[in-house]
Amino acid sequence: MTKPDTAGSSDLEPGGLASDVKRSLRRLLSRSWFGAASSVGALVLSAVVGSVLLLIYGYSPVEVYGGILTGAFGSRNAIAETLLKATPLIFTGLAMAVASRAGLFNIGGEGQLVVGALGAAMMGTVDLGLPGVLHGAAALAVGCLAGAAWGALAGWIRAQFGAHEVIVTIMLNYIALLLTSYMVNYPWKAEGMVAQSTRVLSTAELPRIMNGSQLSYGILIGILAIAVVSFVIRRTILGFEMRAVGFNASAAETGGVRTPLVMIAAMALAGAMAGLGGGVEVLGVHRRFIQGFSPGFGYDGIAVSVLANDQPWLIPVTAVLFGALRAGGAYLDRTTGLPGDFTLLIQGLVIFFAASPRIFAALTDRRDRR
User: Fold this and answer.
1) At what angle do helices 76-101 and 132-161 cross, to 10 degrees?
2) How many domains does the chain have?
3) Closest Cα to residue 203, out of 135, 104, 289, 117?
4) How far apart are CA 263 and CA 253, in angstroms?
5) Is-above-0.90 flag for pTM?
6) What distance lies between CA 186 and its chain's CA centroid?
7) What is the reported pLDDT for 9?
8) CB burial string 299-316: b at 16+ within 10 A, e below
9) What is the pLDDT of residues 311-343, one digit of tens each?
10) What would the DSSP string read from start to end of 280-309?
11) What are the Cα distances from residue 210, in Å, to 79, 110, 214, 216?
């Protein structure tokens, strides 16, 4: 008797086709070119959907988008404002991307940022008798270490007790915000009504790039940080182990990787990037720690990293995009009757479309586990 033809029957088995799609999607997500392509696609789809919504509510898409571009890139000062708003997002985007390589979701960028900012500001007020470059470097190093310690704490709790890093980092964010608020409202408060520290010494300040703008050389430190992170991830043993744990923690541990230590190290490196960003913001922009100086840089960094597909070399591009949306939205509010808050809608659409492949992969994973 002739056996029935079973060719292609694997596709009909439960999970067969879905598993093939999931594997293909994972391969795509791991490719850097797909990150760039998905980012462009997310921007195009967001612009199209945003245009439809503007037309529905009686606004001209050409006028609104034109105003955003003018506010973000229409003059030398506008470009400086865009880069100023993009600078902290480079660091917090890196904080998210580094943790993601180890399979961790670091929502704690906000807490790591403010702790690092406080540490840098405290060191910046101490007269060490050092020249400007060395004093500024020392202050940034303290901010970096403070952020690293805050991130490592979250990693240790995750590795030691199995508590999910999302919950842990959210809780640590609140602790960090309350702790820094206490410091600048009571023991370390400068004179006056504003909850802020004393001004850092001139030797610790980061120089400004141009007159009339708060943009400092901190943006160049951000580019250097991207190079360092890329090297660590691609060229070091720690980077290899992080990627192995992120791909399959159980298999990595079977292969000899000390998964708990890698998790702690990954979160420490992520926290160091966010803490460095806090130091840059304090020493280069405000020249002191001010309560509430961050409007959510840590949370925006998550969106920056997602849009860059966790690729460090794409993070400055996506950070500039979000900086442009912030600068353009402020311009619309300030100079026109157009809705500046529309830029927040665009940000949400960009995040949704950029994250859609990951959401699909996560849903298929959950279904397979059932």
Assistant:
1) 40
2) 1
3) 135
4) 12
5) no
6) 31
7) 43
8) ebbbbbbbbbbbbbebbb
9) 999 999 999 999 999 999 989 888 777 777 788
10) HHIIIIISS-BTT--SSHHHHHHHHHHHTT
11) 11, 28, 8, 8
Q: Tell me the residue range of the domain where 147 lies.
A: 87-313
**Residue at 49 is within a domain:** no
Name the DSSP class of 105: -
CB 69 within 8 A of CB 328: yes
Element (H, E) at 260: helix 259-281
- Which residue type sits at 279? G
* Per-residue pLDDT at 121 exceeds 70: yes
Nearest of 252, 231, 221, 213 to residue 136 by alpha carbon: 221
DSSP per position, 123-144? HHTS-----HHHHHHHHHHHHH
The three-class DSSP label of residue 128 is: coil
Does residue 299 belong to any structural domain of this protein? yes
Does 301 reside within a domain? yes
Cβ contacts of residue 48 below 8 Å, gap of 6+?
Answer: none
Question: How many CB atoms are closer than 10 A to CB 10?
Answer: 11
pLDDT digits (tens, 9 = 90+) for 198-255: 999 999 999 999 999 999 999 999 999 999 999 999 999 999 999 999 999 999 999 9
Q: Cα 330 to the chain's mean position, in Å?
A: 21
Contact 304, 318 (CB under 8 A): yes
- Long-range (24+ apart) CB contacts under 8 A made by 156-161 are 156/264, 158/104, 158/263, 158/267, 159/259, 159/260, 159/261, 159/263, 159/264, 160/260
- CA dihedral (231, 305, 309, 358) positive or negative: positive
Give the whole-angstrom CA distance, residue 173 versus residue 168. Answer: 9
DSSP symbol at 162: -
- Token readout for 23 is 């594997």
- 3-state secondary structure at position 196: strand
Rounded CA gap, 15 and 306, in Å?
27
Q: Amino acid identity of 343?
A: T
Assigned domain for 337 exists: no
Nearest of 232, 205, 224, 87 to residue 137 by alpha carbon: 205
